[in-house]
Amino acid sequence: KYFGIVFVEDAYGPIRQGVNTLGVSAIFVFVTAIGITAIITLALTRSLRTLIEGVRKLEKDPEYELPPADSNDEVAELSETIQRFVHESRRLDKAKYEFVSVASHQLRTPLTHLVWMLELMEKNGPENTIGKYFPDMKSSVDHLAEVVKLLLDARKLDEGHGSVTPKACDLADFIRASSAKFESLAKQKEIIFTVEVPEVFATTTDTDLLQIAFESLVSNAIEYTPREGSVTVTLVRENDLAQISVRDTGIGIPESARAHLFEKFVRADNALKTKPNGTGLGLYIAKESVKKVS
Prior knowledge:
The protein has eight helices and five strands, in the order αααβααββαββαα. By secondary structure, it is mainly alpha-helical.
């Protein structure tokens, strides 16, 4: 009898071991992927749920502020976009309300004066009262025309109507002619009105837009300068640019009001006291006109 040991090598052993290892790895990757996906899904779902709840609250309360996003993903970007849209909508709503409020007040006051004076004329007879009430009636009509012009100018600038049309002109002549319109008003208030311009100043600009800005600035300067004060208009060349300045000895602009000075319907406290029925549109129109010319 023969006794011995026979060693048999399994040629497929390493393959089976590799497959088992690969299977375990695949299962681990699969489970990990599912876990990561679940975490991301939960985070997105939570962010979306918060955003949806915020939008629903916003529908009930227009003043509600959406909470800040706690992530930097697409949901956060969507939330910020919605918030910007809401802020812009609020700004437009406020502007519309202010426009209607200012327009109705500014138009109602001179119209009320006109109606009152016409009723007096009807009661007492035109032949006895027309001379007495005519100056006040003309003043009310002039105020109406001024308010309507300001409102129309503001609307055109807001909507971007009209194109900029530069043309060659003598800016010195333009300022002299435009300033002449205010000489009688300055004389009535005993204001020293001075225009300092060179003999000739050739340039190219849109004089229609420039006139809107210039008349607004000069009108404000005379309006808010006390009697026996002064208003000075100057034109100089500064680094190949035309610099038009309007200086006055008026009530000035408080530091606290300067940041919002050129916004629509904004008026400083001292301006409100000096002229309660102002529109708050003059400087806004001047700024927008200059921006277009520039």
